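User: Run a structure prediction on this.
Assistant: Running it now.
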Amino acid sequence: MESAALITDLYELAMAQSYLEHGKTGKAVFSLFVRRLPENRNFLVACGLETLMKSLENFKFGDRELKYLKSLGIFKDWFLDYLRELELDLEFYALEEGTIFFQNEPILQVEGPLPKAQLIETLVINLIHLETLIASKAVRNYIAAKGKTLVDFGLRRAHSPMAGLLSARACYIGGFNGTSNLQAGMLYGIPVFGTMAHSYIMVFDQEEEAFRAFAKSFPDRVFLLIDTYDTVEGAKKALKLLKEGIKVLGVRIDSGNIPELCREVRRIFDQEGFKDVKILVSGGVDEYDIERWVSEGVPIDAFGVGTKLLTSADAPYLDIAYKLVEYEGKPKFKESPGKKTFPYKRQVWRFFKDGRFDYDKVSRFQEGGLVKKVSFPLPSLKEIRERVLEQINQLPEELKSLRKKVEYRVEVDE
């Protein structure tokens, strides 16, 4: 496996060398947190901890990495020797994956020798940021869908294959039923879904011929894409197969006036008694579409959500930071305008009213709150997902809105 040691920025190593030169090797605490929620987010979902822990297992400086660093002419030989023998004897304190959180609450805190805790900054931010961003977006889709099936179709539009893989994991944690991503299915055990592309329909001379060919190839998995030419006519051809006894499980619509087409397609199947045929909608779908169609009673059974989900199109980044909060037991903090930080290792306490979130309090660390020392084995994907869904049920209704109506109260003990 490729080493993760150079998934970092130059200044991390430059600082580490200088720390060592000046004897700054004492115990440090760094905190990862989000300063402000995006404008249209009421909460976020902590995600990516397991991915980070696995990456850190391979945070090793081997011959290849050290040869490259030496070629830069920046680092001293003794420092390169230090990196060769580096062991990350660090402790991690974190919100459990799947925990709903808010602004200025520590997602992860890293404790240990200053140079080592500094070196992993970029990797920590990168991995936690991506999966937290996508899991938070996925949960919005889950809330909007009100129990309807959700499938991640976003791999081809993700910012890289790795982003697609990690995002599929985050989507499943955030309430999705499955993914089209086979690598995610293999590595994480996420259920996989798929139908066909328009190219499959077009390669045959007739649309009905394509439908019959697919049904012959996969008689137990007949899910037909019906909008290549004329969606209503495609539905009628699917109906013809049904009347012949071919088991068509469902149809997918990827374009056009979705509410109008879904209602007509539903009517076509229902009037002939085929009420079990499912309608899946895809093509630029996001949580705002899902909320609108569900509230209007559009007969849709499942949504394939892709581009806008895996790019978190309406909020493509978080104001996330990894900051020194304590060194050798002394408080450390910034006072920069707009970027003030809070000192000391922190704990999050959550208070409830009538079984719903009421407010949170962030104070100096002590055991018993939401932040826990990371220990192994880590929870399963299923357990993380269940934690998310349980906490969604504990949210006040106004926080479930796709638009910001209130600011959740987080009291920070300074």
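The longest helix spans residues 121-145.
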